[in-house]
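This part of the workshop introduces the protein records we will be handling. Backbone structure tokens are a discrete shorthand for how the chain folds in space. Once this layout is familiar, the rest of the handout is easier to follow. The record below serves as our worked example for the rest of this section.
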Amino acid sequence: MKQIDNSIRGLCSCIIVIWLLSLPFINGYSQSQTTGKSYKDTSVLKNTLSEIVISAYAQNKSITRQPAALFYLSPAEINRFNPASIVSAVNTIPGVQMQQRSPQSYRLNIRGSALVSPFGVRNVKIYYNGIPLTDPGGGTYLNELSPEDMNSLTVIKGPGGSFYGAGTGGVVLIDGPLFSDDSLPNSARISLEGGSDGLQRMMAALTWGESKQKSQLRYSGMSDNGYRDQTAMHDKVLAYEAVLKKGDKQQLSITAHYMDLYYQIPGALTLSEYKRNPRAARPAVGSLPSAEGNKTAVFQKNFLLGLNEQYHFSNHLQSNLVLYGAYADIVNPTIFNYEYRKEPHFGGRVTFNGNYQIGHTQASFWAGGELQQGYFNVTDTKNTGGAAGDMMTDDNVNNFLSMAFVQADFSLPNGWDITAGGSFHHAIVNFTQIFPAPVANVKLNYDHAVSPRIAISKELGGNRIAYVNVSSGYSPPTVSQLLPSTSVINTSLHPETGVDYEIGSRGLLLDQKLYYDIDAFVFNLTKSIATRRDSSGQDYFVNAGGTKQHGIEAYLSYPVISRHKNSLKAWISTSWFDFSYRNYEVTGKDYSGNKLPGTSPFTFVGGLDYNLNKRLAAHVTYTYSNHTPLDDANDVFAASYNLLDFRIDYNTHISRKLNLTLLGGINNLLNGKYSLGDDINVTGGRYYNAAPGRNFYVSAIFKFDGRDENK
């Protein structure tokens, strides 16, 4: 209780600091008459691909000048799928796969990072509006964000530890609507959606203010019965964003977010059960109850409050300060136990950036740090028919992360550019076992680790770039790995470390019309953490020796038709992976040379986007995923699958300022049978989580704003 009290005081202190820091802005904006440039450190969508500015590694450069394997998912690319889900849009990113076992139960896989994750998001650092969404325990509740919260995404593939901290899988930078574009007009919007399996959804947003003080309030609510038994869900999300500017020097962005979510967990099926009835939930087996019998589900509440301030001291020196407080309240009845998790945490990040001209060289320097502190409590009781039973364990977890980083970028004559940086990490995890008695303390101290990065690029002319990138990653075990569902503290896990070597090119060809992005990488990971699941459905983790991860990723897009009133764009996204173990022995078996489970060796996604006079739009998407190994022995594979999705939009004006959009779509048009979100390394053969067959959705969106839509 003492740790919980401390965490509440810390969270309240963080909220008070944010409120106090915002007072000068709130009091000063109405008096400021100066208009100036926005110093937002974010991703901004411009008119052409060559003008998309990405802030990866804090380098505000056009996407065709970024020397790293990254991908920018724009609002237009997100808004070509079902508005109720971000999954299909993320799966258009080469090398990235987002999986969904049931509505709101996500897994994010970047270049094999799902090896350590039976579900959820692990080994990937995620920021929302510049605020760490990943908690100090290493976990990320990506499902706390609604699709409307995710206006754009920048995905950095491979270790980003030199600038963003622990994690070897990658980094995701998510921007909300107002943070992406504070020029949004005063407007009101409401959308209503319905679809297969009882899908019902409503979203409303209100945007108001002036150029120097803009705010947006959003609400969304959704319910869905789900494709399988025991997959019903409902949620409510309330979000507030504000971007406040004071002259040319300061900008303050405020993010407040609350989510209340409930979703059921169906459990995985054996191959025979999957073939017989893919809609079924996990049945009772022996002494173990069924998923429906034990009412397996997640009751989840998340709260986030953060401040992001940019300040320009001069033309040569700027700073970026982030402060945040967050709280997660999780209740999770499973097949085996009934778990309660309370996870308050808070932290901050500061970056100083200097820009100087040295002869013919433009030099930029960054230095800063990030701190996160969490006071978690995890309590497990027996699950007796969906109700909490006798106490099994009660643990307090005090987790602390710190990082300091430096980075330098030199833009040299003749189109050469060199970026070098590095960070220093430290992590401490304190476990206090309250029950069973006697009280015991376990302290895990992960020594300081260094994560360097160097990138060299050369402009090829015509909005093209070639680059090489070498980066190192470091990832200590997460709290969920140290204290998994077995409720036994795992003190034997070691941090993962890895080095990534990349070469790539990105830019425009064929009269600046064909956009291409291709990269090849070699990633060697040591002491990789792999997941296991026993016959009762409980997870545990082991260090799995090393891995060799080689791959090629490519993306192409071309405007087949580009006229004043209509356009047709074709695009493809693909990846080839060769991932295998090295020096990996467990329980007397040698898996060296075997393929890593959970990642398809080949994926292909292609699409066509047609627009007619800004009134009619059609989107077609084809997806192919090759068969995927599901265990270390490579004895079990998920079958390959083909998907065809379609969406059509119609826009019309009810009046000069009121616009109506009607849209509808069909997912899995071919009604293919496939599993999305398979479990890996499972005892008893329970690997398969069936995805929905053919399904549809329809939506109506009403929007009112101050602009004349007919102009």
About this structure: The chain has one domain: 2-705. The chain has seven helices and 37 strands.
